[in-house]
Amino acid sequence: MSIKTIRLKPGKEESILRHHPWVFSGAISSVPSGLEEGEEVCVVDNAGRVLGTGHYQIGSIAVRILEFGVESLPDDFFERRLQNAFTLREGLGLIRPDNNCFRLVHGEGDFLPGLVVDIYGDTAVVQAHSPGMHYARHRIANALTLIPGARIRNVYYKSETTLPYKARLDPENEYLIGGFDGNIALENGLQFNIDWLKGQKTGFFVDQRENRALLEKFAKGRDVLNMFCYTGGFSVYAMRGGANRVDSVDSSSKAVALTDANIALNFPEDKRHTTFATDAFRFLNEMEKDKYDLIVLDPPAFAKHRSAIKNGLIGYRKLNGKAFDKIRSGGILFTFSCSQAITKEMFRLAVFSAAAKSGRKVRILHQLSQPADHPIDISHPEGEYLKGLVLYVE
Ligand code: SAH
Q1: How far apart are CA 184 and CA 242, in angstroms?
Q2: In angstroms, rounded to a whole number, what is the distance separating the alpha carbons of residues 125 and 164?
Q3: φ, ψ of residue 151 in degrees (nearest 5)
Q4: I need a labelling partner for 208 at 20 to 30 A (CA). Which of 33, 104, 106, 178 fits?
Q5: Ligand 1 midpoint to CA 249 (Å)
Q6: How far apart are CA 26 and CA 191, in angstroms?
Q7: pLDDT by residue (tens digit) across 91-138?
Q8: pLDDT tens, position by position, 322-353
Protein backbone atom coordinates (compact mmCIF):
# COMPACT_ATOMS: atom_id res chain seq x y z
CA MET A 1 0.00 0.00 0.00
CA SER A 2 1.51 3.30 -1.02
CA ILE A 3 1.62 6.10 1.47
CA LYS A 4 -0.87 8.93 1.08
CA THR A 5 0.06 12.61 0.99
CA ILE A 6 -1.27 15.64 2.84
CA ARG A 7 -0.62 19.02 1.21
CA LEU A 8 -0.25 22.18 3.28
CA LYS A 9 -1.52 25.66 2.52
CA PRO A 10 1.08 28.09 1.20
CA GLY A 11 3.48 29.31 3.92
CA LYS A 12 2.28 26.78 6.49
CA GLU A 13 5.48 24.71 6.37
CA GLU A 14 7.53 27.11 8.54
CA SER A 15 7.16 25.34 11.90
CA ILE A 16 7.78 21.90 10.36
CA LEU A 17 10.96 23.17 8.73
CA ARG A 18 12.02 24.14 12.28
CA HIS A 19 11.21 20.55 13.34
CA HIS A 20 8.13 21.22 15.39
CA PRO A 21 6.34 17.85 15.07
CA TRP A 22 2.70 18.98 15.06
CA VAL A 23 0.73 19.80 11.91
CA PHE A 24 -2.47 21.62 12.80
CA SER A 25 -5.62 20.93 10.82
CA GLY A 26 -5.89 24.62 9.91
CA ALA A 27 -2.57 24.41 8.01
CA ILE A 28 -3.79 21.68 5.67
CA SER A 29 -4.99 22.42 2.17
CA SER A 30 -6.13 18.92 1.26
CA VAL A 31 -6.53 15.54 2.93
CA PRO A 32 -6.53 12.57 0.52
CA SER A 33 -9.74 10.60 0.33
CA GLY A 34 -9.78 7.39 2.32
CA LEU A 35 -7.05 8.49 4.74
CA GLU A 36 -7.80 6.63 7.96
CA GLU A 37 -7.16 7.88 11.44
CA GLY A 38 -3.86 6.47 12.72
CA GLU A 39 -2.48 5.91 9.22
CA GLU A 40 1.04 6.93 8.24
CA VAL A 41 0.97 9.95 5.97
CA CYS A 42 3.54 12.02 4.10
CA VAL A 43 3.25 15.80 4.51
CA VAL A 44 4.28 18.08 1.64
CA ASP A 45 4.30 21.86 1.30
CA ASN A 46 2.10 23.64 -1.21
CA ALA A 47 4.75 23.23 -3.91
CA GLY A 48 4.93 19.48 -3.27
CA ARG A 49 8.24 19.46 -1.37
CA VAL A 50 8.43 16.59 1.18
CA LEU A 51 8.42 17.82 4.77
CA GLY A 52 8.11 14.57 6.71
CA THR A 53 6.06 11.54 7.59
CA GLY A 54 3.86 10.99 10.61
CA HIS A 55 0.63 9.66 12.07
CA TYR A 56 -2.65 11.17 10.94
CA GLN A 57 -5.38 11.96 13.42
CA ILE A 58 -8.74 13.72 13.31
CA GLY A 59 -8.57 16.77 15.54
CA SER A 60 -6.74 20.04 15.91
CA ILE A 61 -3.34 18.31 15.73
CA ALA A 62 -3.85 16.47 12.45
CA VAL A 63 -0.39 14.94 12.00
CA ARG A 64 2.35 14.12 14.45
CA ILE A 65 5.57 13.99 12.44
CA LEU A 66 7.78 11.02 13.26
CA GLU A 67 10.58 11.69 10.78
CA PHE A 68 11.36 14.92 8.96
CA GLY A 69 12.36 15.08 5.31
CA VAL A 70 11.29 11.54 4.38
CA GLU A 71 8.44 10.16 2.30
CA SER A 72 7.93 7.08 4.43
CA LEU A 73 9.30 5.47 7.59
CA PRO A 74 11.94 2.75 7.47
CA ASP A 75 10.82 -0.74 8.52
CA ASP A 76 13.03 -0.63 11.60
CA PHE A 77 11.81 2.83 12.65
CA PHE A 78 10.66 1.81 16.14
CA GLU A 79 13.69 -0.42 16.78
CA ARG A 80 15.99 2.52 16.04
CA ARG A 81 14.08 5.14 17.99
CA LEU A 82 13.70 2.90 21.04
CA GLN A 83 17.36 1.92 20.92
CA ASN A 84 18.29 5.63 20.87
CA ALA A 85 16.02 6.30 23.82
CA PHE A 86 17.60 3.45 25.76
CA THR A 87 21.15 4.56 24.95
CA LEU A 88 20.34 8.02 26.30
CA ARG A 89 19.02 6.58 29.60
CA GLU A 90 22.07 4.34 29.93
CA GLY A 91 24.27 7.40 29.51
CA LEU A 92 22.30 9.20 32.21
CA GLY A 93 23.28 6.49 34.69
CA LEU A 94 19.67 5.56 35.40
CA ILE A 95 20.12 1.82 34.91
CA ARG A 96 21.89 0.47 37.98
CA PRO A 97 21.52 -2.37 40.47
CA ASP A 98 19.82 0.10 42.84
CA ASN A 99 17.68 1.87 40.21
CA ASN A 100 15.55 0.10 37.63
CA CYS A 101 12.65 2.47 37.05
CA PHE A 102 12.78 5.34 34.61
CA ARG A 103 10.96 6.82 31.63
CA LEU A 104 12.23 5.26 28.42
CA VAL A 105 10.07 7.25 26.01
CA HIS A 106 8.80 10.75 26.66
CA GLY A 107 6.73 11.46 23.54
CA GLU A 108 8.04 14.36 21.49
CA GLY A 109 11.11 14.55 23.75
CA ASP A 110 12.21 11.22 22.27
CA PHE A 111 10.98 12.02 18.75
CA LEU A 112 8.06 9.64 19.27
CA PRO A 113 5.05 11.94 19.57
CA GLY A 114 2.04 10.13 21.01
CA LEU A 115 4.03 7.51 22.91
CA VAL A 116 5.05 7.17 26.55
CA VAL A 117 6.94 4.19 27.96
CA ASP A 118 7.92 3.76 31.59
CA ILE A 119 10.19 0.92 32.71
CA TYR A 120 9.79 -0.87 36.04
CA GLY A 121 12.43 -3.58 36.27
CA ASP A 122 11.72 -6.02 33.47
CA THR A 123 8.26 -4.63 32.71
CA ALA A 124 7.55 -1.82 30.26
CA VAL A 125 4.28 0.07 30.63
CA VAL A 126 3.23 1.58 27.29
CA GLN A 127 0.77 4.45 26.86
CA ALA A 128 -0.48 5.53 23.44
CA HIS A 129 -1.82 9.06 23.14
CA SER A 130 -2.56 8.86 19.42
CA PRO A 131 -4.39 6.35 17.20
CA GLY A 132 -1.21 5.85 15.18
CA MET A 133 0.68 4.65 18.25
CA HIS A 134 -2.29 2.47 19.20
CA TYR A 135 -2.12 0.67 15.85
CA ALA A 136 1.66 0.35 16.19
CA ARG A 137 1.46 -1.12 19.70
CA HIS A 138 2.47 -4.66 18.77
CA ARG A 139 5.44 -3.43 16.74
CA ILE A 140 6.45 -1.22 19.65
CA ALA A 141 6.12 -4.08 22.13
CA ASN A 142 8.29 -6.33 19.98
CA ALA A 143 10.87 -3.63 19.47
CA LEU A 144 11.05 -3.06 23.25
CA THR A 145 11.97 -6.68 23.90
CA LEU A 146 14.70 -6.47 21.24
CA ILE A 147 16.67 -3.61 22.82
CA PRO A 148 20.01 -5.17 23.77
CA GLY A 149 20.74 -4.82 27.46
CA ALA A 150 17.25 -3.59 28.41
CA ARG A 151 16.02 -7.04 29.47
CA ILE A 152 12.35 -6.15 29.00
CA ARG A 153 10.30 -9.33 29.34
CA ASN A 154 6.79 -8.00 29.92
CA VAL A 155 4.98 -5.26 28.06
CA TYR A 156 1.78 -3.91 29.54
CA TYR A 157 -0.38 -1.71 27.34
CA LYS A 158 -2.34 0.91 29.26
CA SER A 159 -4.15 3.35 27.01
CA GLU A 160 -7.78 3.14 28.09
CA THR A 161 -7.69 6.70 29.39
CA THR A 162 -5.06 8.31 27.15
CA LEU A 163 -6.44 7.79 23.65
CA PRO A 164 -8.84 10.32 22.17
CA TYR A 165 -12.31 9.18 23.10
CA LYS A 166 -13.76 10.17 19.75
CA ALA A 167 -11.44 7.83 17.86
CA ARG A 168 -13.55 4.90 19.17
CA LEU A 169 -10.59 2.58 19.42
CA ASP A 170 -11.85 0.90 22.58
CA PRO A 171 -8.35 -0.02 23.72
CA GLU A 172 -8.02 -2.68 26.37
CA ASN A 173 -5.45 -2.53 29.10
CA GLU A 174 -3.54 -5.78 28.69
CA TYR A 175 -0.18 -7.51 28.52
CA LEU A 176 1.00 -7.51 24.92
CA ILE A 177 3.99 -9.64 25.84
CA GLY A 178 4.64 -11.70 28.98
CA GLY A 179 2.55 -11.19 32.08
CA PHE A 180 2.70 -10.20 35.70
CA ASP A 181 5.86 -11.38 37.43
CA GLY A 182 6.31 -9.03 40.35
CA ASN A 183 5.93 -5.30 40.65
CA ILE A 184 8.59 -4.08 43.04
CA ALA A 185 10.88 -1.53 41.41
CA LEU A 186 13.93 0.20 42.80
CA GLU A 187 14.47 3.93 42.77
CA ASN A 188 17.75 5.16 44.25
CA GLY A 189 17.88 2.05 46.43
CA LEU A 190 14.32 2.45 47.75
CA GLN A 191 11.67 -0.15 46.96
CA PHE A 192 8.30 0.74 45.48
CA ASN A 193 5.25 -1.39 44.70
CA ILE A 194 4.17 -0.20 41.29
CA ASP A 195 0.51 -0.71 40.54
CA TRP A 196 0.35 -0.35 36.76
CA LEU A 197 -2.88 -2.37 36.69
CA LYS A 198 -4.96 0.00 38.80
CA GLY A 199 -2.73 2.98 39.57
CA GLN A 200 -2.78 6.44 38.00
CA LYS A 201 -0.89 6.99 34.73
CA THR A 202 1.64 4.17 34.36
CA GLY A 203 1.52 3.43 38.09
CA PHE A 204 4.23 5.71 39.44
CA PHE A 205 5.50 9.24 38.93
CA VAL A 206 9.10 8.67 37.90
CA ASP A 207 9.38 12.35 37.04
CA GLN A 208 9.86 13.33 40.70
CA ARG A 209 12.86 11.04 41.27
CA GLU A 210 15.51 13.75 41.54
CA ASN A 211 13.28 16.11 43.46
CA ARG A 212 12.56 13.36 45.97
CA ALA A 213 16.30 12.74 46.32
CA LEU A 214 16.77 16.46 47.03
CA LEU A 215 14.04 16.37 49.67
CA GLU A 216 15.85 13.54 51.40
CA LYS A 217 18.75 15.91 52.07
CA PHE A 218 16.46 18.41 53.81
CA ALA A 219 14.58 15.84 55.90
CA LYS A 220 16.84 15.20 58.87
CA GLY A 221 15.10 15.92 62.16
CA ARG A 222 12.18 17.64 60.45
CA ASP A 223 8.43 17.16 60.80
CA VAL A 224 7.29 16.47 57.26
CA LEU A 225 3.93 16.86 55.57
CA ASN A 226 3.67 15.19 52.15
CA MET A 227 0.54 16.60 50.60
CA PHE A 228 -0.89 14.79 47.52
CA CYS A 229 1.28 11.81 48.35
CA TYR A 230 -0.06 9.25 45.80
CA THR A 231 2.39 6.33 46.18
CA GLY A 232 4.26 8.07 48.97
CA GLY A 233 7.43 8.72 46.97
CA PHE A 234 8.45 11.85 48.86
CA SER A 235 7.50 10.22 52.19
CA VAL A 236 9.77 7.22 51.69
CA TYR A 237 12.73 9.48 50.87
CA ALA A 238 11.96 11.70 53.87
CA MET A 239 11.98 8.63 56.11
CA ARG A 240 15.39 7.56 54.80
CA GLY A 241 16.62 11.12 55.23
CA GLY A 242 15.99 10.87 58.95
CA ALA A 243 12.77 12.84 59.33
CA ASN A 244 11.41 13.07 62.82
CA ARG A 245 7.88 12.39 61.62
CA VAL A 246 6.19 12.07 58.22
CA ASP A 247 2.47 12.61 57.58
CA SER A 248 1.18 11.72 54.11
CA VAL A 249 -2.11 13.01 52.76
CA ASP A 250 -4.15 12.11 49.68
CA SER A 251 -7.88 12.32 48.97
CA SER A 252 -7.79 8.88 47.36
CA SER A 253 -7.95 5.97 49.78
CA LYS A 254 -6.28 3.79 47.14
CA ALA A 255 -3.34 6.20 47.06
CA VAL A 256 -3.11 6.18 50.82
CA ALA A 257 -3.04 2.36 50.79
CA LEU A 258 -0.21 2.46 48.23
CA THR A 259 1.73 4.86 50.45
CA ASP A 260 1.22 2.62 53.49
CA ALA A 261 2.45 -0.38 51.51
CA ASN A 262 5.57 1.44 50.31
CA ILE A 263 6.45 2.67 53.77
CA ALA A 264 5.95 -0.86 55.15
CA LEU A 265 8.17 -2.24 52.39
CA ASN A 266 11.09 0.03 53.27
CA PHE A 267 10.53 0.84 56.94
CA PRO A 268 8.49 -1.95 58.51
CA GLU A 269 7.14 -1.18 61.99
CA ASP A 270 8.51 2.37 61.81
CA LYS A 271 6.21 4.52 63.92
CA ARG A 272 7.28 7.86 62.42
CA HIS A 273 4.82 7.64 59.52
CA THR A 274 1.04 8.27 59.38
CA THR A 275 -1.36 8.52 56.43
CA PHE A 276 -4.55 10.56 56.08
CA ALA A 277 -7.19 9.99 53.39
CA THR A 278 -8.71 13.44 53.13
CA ASP A 279 -8.97 16.53 50.97
CA ALA A 280 -5.88 18.72 50.89
CA PHE A 281 -7.62 22.03 51.56
CA ARG A 282 -9.60 20.53 54.39
CA PHE A 283 -6.45 19.10 55.97
CA LEU A 284 -4.56 22.38 55.61
CA ASN A 285 -7.48 24.40 57.02
CA GLU A 286 -7.86 22.17 60.03
CA MET A 287 -4.22 21.55 60.87
CA GLU A 288 -2.66 23.52 63.67
CA LYS A 289 0.00 26.13 62.98
CA ASP A 290 3.71 25.33 63.28
CA LYS A 291 3.14 21.57 63.14
CA TYR A 292 5.45 21.01 60.18
CA ASP A 293 8.79 22.41 59.07
CA LEU A 294 9.03 20.58 55.75
CA ILE A 295 5.98 20.59 53.48
CA VAL A 296 5.60 19.08 50.00
CA LEU A 297 2.80 20.29 47.75
CA ASP A 298 2.63 18.19 44.58
CA PRO A 299 -0.96 18.53 43.37
CA PRO A 300 -2.47 17.15 40.15
CA ALA A 301 -2.43 19.58 37.21
CA PHE A 302 -4.75 22.45 38.15
CA ALA A 303 -4.79 23.68 34.53
CA LYS A 304 -4.98 20.90 31.98
CA HIS A 305 -5.76 23.33 29.14
CA ARG A 306 -5.04 26.95 28.33
CA SER A 307 -8.64 27.83 29.11
CA ALA A 308 -8.08 26.74 32.72
CA ILE A 309 -4.95 28.85 33.38
CA LYS A 310 -6.69 31.58 35.33
CA ASN A 311 -8.48 29.24 37.72
CA GLY A 312 -5.41 27.08 37.96
CA LEU A 313 -3.32 30.01 39.13
CA ILE A 314 -5.94 30.89 41.73
CA GLY A 315 -5.70 27.27 42.94
CA TYR A 316 -1.90 27.40 43.25
CA ARG A 317 -2.10 30.75 45.05
CA LYS A 318 -4.61 29.44 47.58
CA LEU A 319 -2.82 26.18 48.18
CA ASN A 320 0.58 27.76 48.70
CA GLY A 321 -0.99 30.50 50.82
CA LYS A 322 -2.23 27.87 53.26
CA ALA A 323 1.24 26.38 53.51
CA PHE A 324 2.83 29.81 54.14
CA ASP A 325 0.24 30.52 56.82
CA LYS A 326 0.98 27.31 58.70
CA ILE A 327 4.61 26.30 58.14
CA ARG A 328 6.98 26.65 61.09
CA SER A 329 9.55 29.41 61.01
CA GLY A 330 12.72 28.18 59.31
CA GLY A 331 10.57 25.76 57.34
CA ILE A 332 11.19 24.37 53.87
CA LEU A 333 8.45 24.23 51.25
CA PHE A 334 8.74 22.01 48.16
CA THR A 335 6.02 23.26 45.84
CA PHE A 336 5.21 21.96 42.35
CA SER A 337 3.03 22.45 39.32
CA CYS A 338 2.73 19.79 36.62
CA SER A 339 0.34 21.88 34.50
CA GLN A 340 1.84 22.13 31.04
CA ALA A 341 -0.21 25.25 30.28
CA ILE A 342 1.23 27.14 33.25
CA THR A 343 4.71 28.49 32.65
CA LYS A 344 7.53 28.67 35.16
CA GLU A 345 7.02 32.43 35.38
CA MET A 346 3.27 32.18 35.99
CA PHE A 347 3.76 29.58 38.69
CA ARG A 348 6.45 31.62 40.37
CA LEU A 349 4.21 34.67 40.35
CA ALA A 350 1.34 32.70 41.91
CA VAL A 351 3.63 31.45 44.68
CA PHE A 352 5.09 34.93 45.12
CA SER A 353 1.59 36.46 45.53
CA ALA A 354 0.76 33.84 48.13
CA ALA A 355 3.99 34.61 50.00
CA ALA A 356 3.35 38.37 49.86
CA LYS A 357 -0.19 37.93 51.18
CA SER A 358 1.01 35.78 54.07
CA GLY A 359 3.56 38.39 55.10
CA ARG A 360 6.26 35.72 55.45
CA LYS A 361 9.80 36.31 54.26
CA VAL A 362 10.47 33.71 51.59
CA ARG A 363 13.61 32.85 49.65
CA ILE A 364 14.06 30.52 46.68
CA LEU A 365 16.69 27.85 47.37
CA HIS A 366 16.21 25.66 44.31
CA GLN A 367 14.29 25.83 41.06
CA LEU A 368 13.23 22.38 39.98
CA SER A 369 12.14 20.80 36.73
CA GLN A 370 11.59 17.45 35.12
CA PRO A 371 14.54 15.01 35.03
CA ALA A 372 16.64 14.12 32.00
CA ASP A 373 14.62 10.98 31.21
CA HIS A 374 11.78 13.42 30.42
CA PRO A 375 13.73 15.40 27.80
CA ILE A 376 12.32 18.46 26.05
CA ASP A 377 12.82 18.69 22.30
CA ILE A 378 14.04 22.25 21.82
CA SER A 379 11.72 22.54 18.80
CA HIS A 380 8.77 21.51 20.97
CA PRO A 381 8.79 23.66 24.11
CA GLU A 382 5.31 22.34 24.99
CA GLY A 383 7.14 19.27 26.33
CA GLU A 384 8.16 21.21 29.43
CA TYR A 385 5.55 20.65 32.13
CA LEU A 386 7.00 20.05 35.60
CA LYS A 387 8.18 23.02 37.61
CA GLY A 388 8.96 23.33 41.26
CA LEU A 389 10.46 25.62 43.87
CA VAL A 390 12.22 24.84 47.11
CA LEU A 391 11.56 27.75 49.45
CA TYR A 392 12.98 28.77 52.78
CA VAL A 393 10.32 30.40 54.92
CA GLU A 394 11.75 32.69 57.61
N1 SAH B 1 3.55 13.43 44.81
C2 SAH B 1 3.17 12.23 44.12
C3 SAH B 1 2.30 12.48 42.91
C4 SAH B 1 1.05 13.25 43.20
S5 SAH B 1 -0.18 13.02 42.00
C6 SAH B 1 4.41 11.44 43.74
O7 SAH B 1 5.54 11.85 44.03
O8 SAH B 1 4.26 10.37 43.19
C9 SAH B 1 -1.51 13.92 42.68
C10 SAH B 1 -2.25 13.22 43.79
O11 SAH B 1 -3.17 14.16 44.34
C12 SAH B 1 -3.10 12.02 43.38
O13 SAH B 1 -2.69 10.90 44.11
C14 SAH B 1 -4.54 12.41 43.75
O15 SAH B 1 -5.29 11.33 44.31
C16 SAH B 1 -4.33 13.48 44.78
N17 SAH B 1 -5.40 14.48 44.92
C18 SAH B 1 -6.12 15.06 43.93
N19 SAH B 1 -6.96 15.99 44.44
C20 SAH B 1 -6.74 16.02 45.78
C21 SAH B 1 -7.29 16.77 46.86
N22 SAH B 1 -8.21 17.71 46.65
N23 SAH B 1 -6.82 16.55 48.10
C24 SAH B 1 -5.86 15.61 48.33
N25 SAH B 1 -5.33 14.86 47.35
C26 SAH B 1 -5.75 15.05 46.09
Answers
A1: 23
A2: 19
A3: 50, 45
A4: 178
A5: 8
A6: 48
A7: 999 999 999 999 999 999 999 999 999 999 999 999 999 999 999 999
A8: 999 999 999 999 999 999 999 999 999 999 99
